[in-house]
Amino acid sequence: MACASCHTVLPDLLAAPALARTLGLSVPSPFAVVMTDRVRDKVMRPDAVQNKRIGYLRSAEPVIYALVLASDDRGQRRPALSRESEEGLRRMWSEQIRTGENKGSWTWPDASEDPWETPESVYYGTALAALAVGYAPAEYTRRPELREQIEEMSEYLRSRFHEQIIHHRLAALWASSNLPGIVSGSDRESTLAELWRTQNDDGGWSWSALGPWKPRPDAFAAAVATGKDSDGYATAFAACSLREAGVSVSAPQLRRALAWLSGHQDAKTGGWPARSLNGQNPDDPVLGHLMEDAATAYAVVALSKAGD
Fold first, then answer.
1. Are 151 and 141 in contact (CB under 8 A)?
2. What is the pLDDT of residues 272-286, one digit of tens each?
3. Whole domain around residue 218: which residue ranges?
4. Residues in the chain, pLDDT under 70
5. How many angstroms separate the CA atoms of 98 and 10, rounded?
6. Closest to 183 in 3D by CA, of 235, 132, 127, 143
7. Rounded distance, CA 60 to CA 97, Å?
8. Is residue 10 part of a domain?
9. pLDDT on residue 27
C-alpha cells in the first residue's frame, strides 16, 4: 500500500519508534522504513500538494505527510528537521484555512466513516497538524514567519475544544504535550474527569465513552456506538493519548487501562481486537482489520511508555 493517508498506515507509523525502542532496534521496521520513504518521495514531487486521485484528500494528505515525517525525525532523534520534513510542513501550512469560521483549521475528508472521516473530524485533523508542529524541534515554533499561522491553529483548537466528542479532545490533549497552549488547564482537567467517570469497571473504555456518535443504519455499528463493552481501539487510543499528554502511569485509572490492554492482546495475532463503528467487513482483507490495526498501534505506544 503506497498511501499513508489511507486506512491505518498513520497509526502504524506513529507507533514505529515505540515498537523499535521496545524491541531494542536501532531503526524502525522494514514496513515503516518503506512507507516513510514513500512519503518523502511524494512530498518532494512538484505535484505533491494536488492529489489528483482523490480530490477530497488535497488538504488532509499534507497534514498526514508532515506528521509522518516529523514523527520520524523525532523518533530518529535528529537534531533538526530533515529537508523532506521542512517541505512537508511548508505544504501543510499552505493548505491551512486563513479566513472564515474555520480559520486556523484544515479541510478534512468526509467519507461518512467514524472516527476519522466525517464533517466533525475537522477538529481531529487540525489536532494532527498541531501534533506535527509539536514534534518538530522547539526552534520551529519560534520562527517569526510561522507565528500567525500557529496562533490561528492554536486558537481554533482552544475555542472549539469544549464542542468536541471525547475522541477528538483526546487528539488535542496528545498534541498539547508539546504545544501546551492549545488546551487550557481547566479543559484538560474536565476531560480527564469525564474519562474517569466513563471508564468501565474492567479498566477499559467503550466506543460510546468516546462519543456520542451519529446513528448508523447497520445494527452492529449501532450496537457498538451505544454499547458499554470495553473495546480495543477505544481503550488503546484513550490510554495512548493520555500517556502522550503526560498523564502519569501512577494515576490509578490509567494504570487500570494499561492492565486491560496487557490482558487483552490476542495471543495468536499479536494484535488487539476492536470493533468498527462503520459495520462489519470480516471478509475484506483491508476493511476487515482497520480498527484492530489502529488499536494495536496505539496499544504499543501506550504500553511502551508505561516503562518510562
1. no
2. 999 999 888 766 766
3. 199-308
4. 1-7, 47-57, 282-283, 285-288, 306-308
5. 26
6. 127
7. 12
8. no
9. 83
